[in-house]
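Hey,
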Amino acid sequence: MTKRFLLLLATLFLTFHSPVRAAESHLAEPAFVTEMSHFNELEKAKGLDSIGERLAFRAKEQPFLLVATIIFLLAIVHTFFAIPITKRAHHVQHEHDAKIRRLKAAEGEAAVAGDMVSFKATALHFLGEVEAIFGIWVLVLIVAMFGYYDLNTVKAYFMGVNYTEPLFVIIIMALASTRPILRFAESCLSGFARIGKQTPAAWWLSIMIVAPLLGSFITEPGAMTIAAMLLAKKFYSLKPSPKFAYATLGLLFVNISVGGVLTNFAAPPVLMVAQKWGLTTFEMLLHYGDKAVFSIVVSSTIYYLFFRKELGQMASRAGDHDGDGKGDLIVKERRVPPFVIITHLAFMAWTVAFSHYPPLFIGGFLFFLAFSQATAHHQHDINLRGPILVGFFLGGLVIHGGLQGWWLAPIISSLKEWPLFIGSTILTSFNDNAAITFLASQVEGLSPHLKYAVLAGAVTGGGLTVIANAPNPAGQALLGRFFGDGVSPGKLMLGALIPTILVATCMMFFPDRGIDKMFEPVEGMEATHETSATAEPPTPEVKNLQPEHP
């Protein structure tokens, strides 16, 4: 199986600069992308000032953009029906199995696995797979785009979308879920858990506080993968209550979203504006990092105090492994040689360092697959199903998200500090937070406090839904099996609500007098002339959903 994946990835790697791709890249820019860049000047010429007038004008000029947004909203609504659809799929499958068994029994034969396949149940199960939903609606988007334009327009748009982030998440998830990396992460976190004698409470606090902060160095998707797998191994396998399960998942999503702001390269929403706004790691640590650390520690402590009784009950179920009379999560596992761990860490470092250069990090992953085969006796089987599904989810989100700038940009550019923070937090819940900050970076003349507000809002709202932050689908994919028929979007939002409010309080009420200096215009990157804070720039091209790198 690994060899087949190796061959597939090698084929994809070799096609990155193929003549076919080069030819496709010269397709004419889609009309709806070209016209979006002229909306602002046309609105000024017509004297359209209110958001309602501007949105109505844009929808009339480019009806396809309105259709694309409706399709995107339908995809979001679809996610709320994923669990009922999955339940229906299970019901249909059970009816089909019972029917086949009766027919086979009447014929005096035994039913085999192949007989139990139900097309209807399989189709319903696919429709209820959260990671597949946005990809499914991409098919609807293609049909709509083809109906309004032609095949070349469809190809031009899809060739212009930047798929770097989905590819990176696939590979960083695969690396972070390997046995050597998990053993290394577990040994690091056990140092903190030993303070509490490795009880479930100590391990829970260690995972919920330390792992998200590691996201500032190993990237948020890597931290999410490690934290989710450790939670699955040490807590969800103990069958906690649904309230604890959703609270932990919601808190994890929020902590991961804010835990990556200690540096300027690990959190997707920060990365989108770091170069344009000249944000350094020191500045992120000084103006966002302190608030992130405080909110993570306080939120985790509040949830610990609320669930301390259940964590104590888990200790009795976990058993006493060190003979001190208290339940703990000490597990003795086969040792992994240091050179294997160091090599895996080197592959992760390579992937993070070249996270914006697909040929380099995909090439590195091919070498990693070869190394993992040579050290198979120290490895788990590499399961790419989860990472590929998450990549599929993010790919669909990027495709849909690239067509939402026509309504997002006017809203972002018309708000003041507090409305912008609240709006950014809410919009993040329904659109990837990296898209929010990227669109904000295209608005010339934003004051330092408006820049601070939109970035703070984007990371604050990153845990409210699965689509709010790029690492969230990875967490759901790894922990979804512990939630029966699937993770409920409403219960997830409730689980994340308290820590989100706490993060918002820290981000907006902590005194910070260095914001003006932090967001000083970078020479050559922003306009030097005075511009109104509500002025809106040309809507960015779809192909620039990620920042440019040399």
